Amino acid sequence: MKLRLNNFKRVTCGIMKVLFSIVLMLSVPYILCYDEKYDKIDVDKIINDDKLFNAYIDCMLDRGPCTLEYSEDFKKLLPEVIATCCAKCSPLQRQNVRKTVRALTEKRPDDFKTFRDKFDPKGEYEKDFTAFVLGSD
Fold it and tell me: What are the φ and ψ backbone dihedral angles of 122, each rounded to 5 degrees?
């Protein structure tokens, strides 16, 4: 009887390990990517509306409240996005980050400099992030 119980425990433990591994493998894509809700942001609308664009910029730079859709989230995620060159972004999110940064550098160079000073004061990410912004998927 004791032998059967030990075999049962070993088999049960093995099954649990396999199930855990399967659950972990299935959840990895969700752990490694930013929420797909950010894919629904109309970046063109924000970039082309000075009032909206200013409000997002002011939020990120601590010059105003973060009351617009996902602005608080973006502010929290921005350091990681810069440090990892958007590694956890979906293809659409990568495209939107590139578009936003390009618009910021063209329309608001002084604010872009303030972003760099705030989020990359040592310039350690500048080369890689610039290559990311100028690149494409």
Answer: -90, -5
